[in-house]
Each structure stands twice: as structure tokens, then as C-alpha cells.
Amino acid sequence: METLTTIAPTFDVTEIRKSFPVLEREVNNQLLVYLDNAATSQKPQVVIDALNYYYTNYNANIHRGIHTLAEEATAAYEATRKTVQQFINARFSEEIIFTRGATEGINLVAYTWGRKNIYPGDEIIISTMEHHSNIVPWQILCEEKKAVLKVIPINDEGELLMDEYKKLLSEKTKLVAIAHASNALGTINPVKEIIEEAHKACAVVLVDGAQSTVHLDIDVQKMDCDFFAFSGHKVYGPTGAGALYGKKKILEEMPVFMGGGEMIKEVTFEKTTYNGQPYKYEAGTPNIADTIALKVALDFVTELGKNIIRNHENDLLKYATEKMSEVDGLRIIGTAKNKVSLISFVIKNTHPQDIGVLLDNQGIAVRTGHHCTEPLMKRFGIPGTVRASFALYNTKEEVDRLISALKKAIKMLA
Amino acid sequence: MIKMNTSIKEREEEITDEFSLFDTWEEKYEYIIDLGKKLEPLDEKYKIPENIIKGCQSTVWLTSEFRDGRVFYKADSDAVIVKGLISMLIKVLSDNTPDEILNAKLDFINEIGMMTHLAQTRSNGLLSMIKQIEHYALAYKSISAV
Fold it and tell me: Which of A40, A347, A353, A407 should we substitute to test contact with B (largest number of B Cβ atoms within 10 Å)?
């Protein structure tokens, strides 16, 4: 009888890197070290091929066409909806609305659900660490509706003060909009607890999953969030293709967003009746090619295994955190216990931008600035940070290159 | 280093000559960083919001004066590389007539390999800086034309 041996799944980063053609390029005469993944991730060849294949083989407008190409394109487009549903474990595929990305998803909720449900004196709760995309739409809404924006404070490690959050909740609270993971600090927020508390106060919760979807297992049913928005381009997919999840019951009652084709059932000059969800929120010809390729990106991640990817990324985070702590004058901004794989930091007496320029000259791509979180930077009393964010294809050797390039930059600026 | 009473073109050439001695990016940037450090700090009274150039990741203050038909610039930044770039711009453009400033081609930026800093995406504002320098020149030109 054959013996069955369990082989632990291995993660061969050298092999995986071969799937990402851009990683072979040189920048300023050095092999690129791409550490700006929290802004956007690079794309594997299969995603690039999917885009190419769509345009060379079955480019057609979807849903209405009767011909073969339209049918193929429609099937591929709707297959992505199914894949997104599974990727975030939504109950129904019609709970998935395609958007350009997390920003559009949040705005969609603000302009539809928000306009219908927010009244003068109502309160919306966000947190200090929100991206501008999860601040500005609510500010606009609050201004229009004479509602009040409340902000959950954080501690010096960059963690939410949960007791303060609970104090902010009241019968006035109509919505809590919170980042699952912070783009500037890396902090993973306890969304399950946040949602539970919000629901006790009968408030609806939107989770901004822009930074979490690529790293964490997303289960919107377990989380019990009412809305979840993410961008495909941060999950190895193309730019301009993302999704908004909304609980079916809420989506059914929500007013439409944009008017146009696709979202209608019947149009006369007297009255228009609308299509059901998700289509009533997808006016006009959508981003067909990129949405189709998004499926390939999500499949790519699922096949590798999020668990295995996360182990690799957490190893990198731990390694980089240790190495950085040894750099003179370096202070990590965001030292929460639970973090996704990114490190924000400042160097004593040095502007982040100077570091960024000198790293780029050494072939290293990082992000510098306020990371669209100006209120958060103000909370820490800094103009911005340098941010190195890691993806599944990054290596310890790349972390070493970052550290030595960083030391060189600091020396040059001293 | 750079003598005044020379034309913009001559001042540009002096910078280009200086840079031609450098073989590596490190030498170039060390030079720029040094210029940045040596730039005369701007008096605190000029560090007001109205003097901040928008569109920069770092804070850049720019102020100007119009004396005897010539424009004089002063600037500062909290980032040293930007400060070095400003320092070069000021050395080239300050103490010239508005027309001379507006007609300057500033080819030296390309010649010394600093063109990437003109890209919008870098958001370090060299481009915004040049625009603001030109705005001042244009404003003084219209004043003196009256």
C-alpha cells in the first residue's frame, strides 16, 4: 500500500518573481526593488495576457449583444463577479457591484445610501487613520445634510482607542466607515468588534478594504459588514477595476447612483424603471477588459494560497522591522501589534522626500509624503513618512538593499 | 561661484560646466544637497502661507522683490534636495529683468540630468516653482509697463 505523505505547501519566491515581468527591469542602472505595493501592486503575466486575449479575441459590449463575442465577453465579465463573491465570501453574486476601485465604492455608498438615510443631526463615525477617500465623501455628505462627522482617536502605536469609539456610538450614529487596514501605518483594525458595536447602535458599517484585501482573508459574512469596498489593482489586478459589496437587503432599498444604459429596465420620457442590483448601480459600458482580468488576478492569489502568501509577507515585515530598528535616527510610525506588511518611517532631521529621491537613484521604489492621510500625519506631528510596502514577490535580499540604500541616503544627507 | 552681472545663459553654462565634472549620481546629488544646505535661510517673516508654493510634497516658500527694473528671488524649503534645486534656479534667474526671466529657456536642468525633477509625478514642485518665478516676473512686467 502506498503511504500518503503530506507535503507542506512551499512558497518559492524566486519562481513567483518570474510571473511578474516588470521585476526584471532596471531603474537607474540597478535591478528594480519595488516597495510601493500599498499604492499599487505589479501584475503577473497571466493578468497581462488576459487583457491582451480579451482585446485580440472577444472584445464586445456586454449584456445586450446577441452575437458570440458579446456572449463570451458577458460570460467572462460575470465570471469575475462570481470570483469576487467567493474571494470575499459574499452570500450572493448580486451583492457585488463593479467599480473603478475602493474610492468609487465609498462614494457610491455616500451618494446613494447616504443621501437617502442621513438627516440633520445624524452622526457618521470614521477614524483618525482614514485615507482621504474615506474622509472626504463623508465630509461632503455631512455638509450637505447638516450631519456631524466624529473621529475615533488612536494611540501612539497607531491603534484605535476602542473605548473612545464605544463612547462615540449613540442613537445618532447612522454610519461607521472604517479602514480594515491603514495604508499609512499598516495597522489592522478589529473590524469585527467595531461592526458588532455599531450594529448594537443600529448603525450601518462600511469597511474600506483597499489595504486589507490583498493580505487578509476576507469574509464579509463573518465580519457582518454592510458594505465592503476594495480596488483590484492592489490585488495584482488591473487598474480601474474594483468592487463594492453591499448586503442584498440594503442594496435593494438603495437609490440608483448614475443614470444611463444597463441600469434601466424600461425608459419612457415620462418615467424610467430601474434594473435590479447589481446592474442598477452599473450605468454605462463598464470596464469590461480590466474586470475580466481581475478574475485572473484573484485566481492567481487563491491558487498560491493567501495563508502562504501572508506567512511570506509577515516574515518580510518582521525581518524589515528588525533591520530598520538598527538604522540610526530611524523611527517607525505605526507599531501596532497587528499589521499588514508595510513600514512607514521617518529619519531624524531629514525630509521623507529627500530619502525617496535618493532611494530612487538606487533603483528602489518607495512612497513618500502624507499618503493621503493628512489628519493622521498631523496626529503624529510629521509632514509625512517614507513607506516601504511589501508584496508576495518581495525578498529579504530586497529588504537588505533597501537598508543599505537607506544608510547611504542618510549619509549623503548628513 | 556665480558672478552677478552675467546673463542667464552664462550662469546656466557655469552650472552645466560644474556638473560636467561629476561622473556619478552621488556626486551630483551631494553637490545639490550642499547647495541646499548653503542656501541663505529665508527670514521667518516670509514663511507665511501666501508664499508657499502649492503642489509640492515638501514645503517651499518663494518671495520676490522688484528693484531698479530687476527681480530678486528668495526661497526656502524643508527638504534639502529641493532647496538645492531652488538655489540653482535663484542663482540663474535672480537679478534679471522680467523679460530676461520670462525668455529664459532653462536648458541647464536637462543638461545636468535633473529633468526628472520637472515631472509632475515627482510632486516635488520644481515645475510649480518655475511657474511661480515666472508669475512674479510677469506681474512685475505689467507693473513696470504702466
Answer: A353
